[in-house]
Design brief:
Helix content: 25-40%
Number of strands: 12
CATH class: Alpha Beta
Largest sheet: 8 strands, parallel
Radius of gyration: 25 Å
Number of helices: 10
CATH superfamily: Aldolase class I
Structural class: alpha/beta
Strand order of the largest sheet: 5-2-1-12-11-10-9-6
Shape: elongated
């Protein structure tokens, strides 16, 4: 412990006559958040962020099965009913995968129809995006059938080559470009999905500079899964998200960016994204945890959408309607 020269301290207190320095040059105005008493230029103006918050709900995804989360919707009926529940509660859109009878991801026009046609009948303004990942024999042709059906209003293109968990997940450049061309020609909106900041460079080189996708584009940042931008603690979350967003803004300043609540980061990264003026995708596709610091399993998509409603109210950004969402992505 240091020795304090209290004699000098007390001398200083007496010299200042036991008062802080206070010179109210703008009196009677002491503090304004908007202007100065000394000039008329505005000091603080409203932030330039979107008023409406898009909340997309990814209903099931491709990965998790009942041994990881027993609440995971897997059948077409479960996926459809879960989607209806969040749309009834005010979700902007839903992101759809379908599963086969064993619970694995599948590209199937019939199963997409079973889920999406009832949704569009009930919600006429609904714009649906669906994940088409042709990894097995025959799935490329089935993807083309889905696109030709006009069921989907948007579809992600994954500009990546990475390990997702224990699986190598790579889109060779020709596949990436041809799939993008097919999505655009179907009349759907291509969503550029990036998992690391390097994927932003892939998207720029193969999709934007080639002219396949015009800017401003729709972007989907999917961090925090094993193999994606790591978010194993709050510092990584903040640094990783801001880096990815900055990389996108360098090539697409006005692009619409949606951030997924994924991995352990879960609703924390979605909250950070919403505060940054971005948009969010929540739900049971990219995580089975509610919080980074606990092991609570998600019980339903409606449970997570309820959290998004609280987030929307807390930051003053009303959730975009299905009509708002359709307009915001350029449909």
């Amino acid at each position: 412990m240091t020795n304090v020269n209290w004699e000098k301290v007390q001398a200083g207190v007496e010299r200042e006559k036991k008062k802080m320095v206070w010179r109210p040059y703008g009196a009677p105005q002491i503090l304004s958040l908007e202007n100065s008493a000394l000039h008329d230029a505005p000091i603080s103006v409203p932030w330039s962020i979107p008023e409406k918050l898009i909340v997309s709900v990814a209903i099931t995804g491709a990965f998790f099965r009942h041994d990881q989360n027993p609440n995971q919707p897997l059948t077409p009926a479960e996926i459809r009913d879960s989607a209806m529940a969040v749309l009834d509660s005010g979700a902007s859109t839903v992101h759809i995968h379908v599963r086969d009878d064993q619970g694995y991801n599948v590209v199937s026009l019939e199963r997409f129809k079973a889920v999406i046609e009832p949704l569009k009948k009930k919600y006429p303004d609904l714009a649906v995006d669906g994940c088409l990942v042709p990894a097995l024999d025959g799935e490329w042709d089935e993807m083309c059938r889905v696109l030709d059906s006009k069921l989907l209003d948007a579809a992600p293109v994954n500009a990546t080559a990475t390990y997702i968990g224990d699986s190598l997940f790579a889109k060779p450049a020709p596949i990436l470009m041809e799939k993008t061309r097919l999505i655009v020609e179907s009349g759907a909106v291509p969503e550029i999905a990036v998992y690391t900041d390097g994927d932003v460079s892939n998207a720029d080189r193969f999709l934007i500079k080639s002219g396949l996708i015009k800017t401003p584009a729709v972007w989907l940042i999917l961090p925090a899964l094993p193999g994606c931008s790591p978010m194993d603690n709050p510092r990584q979350m903040v640094e990783g998200l801001t880096r990815s967003v900055a990389a996108i803004r360098d090539i697409d300043p006005d692009g619409l960016i949606m951030v997924c609540a994924a991995g352990r980061a879960a609703m924390y990264v979605a909250t950070m994204a919403a505060v940054m003026g971005l948009h969010v995708r929540i739900g049971m596709e990219d995580t089975y945890w509610l919080w980074p610091h606990r092991d609570d399993r998600i019980e339903s998509n409606s449970q997570v959408f309820g959290l998004a409603n609280h987030l929307s109210a807390a930051i003053g950004r009303p959730i975009a309607s299905t009509t708002d969402y359709r307009r915001m992505i350029g449909l």
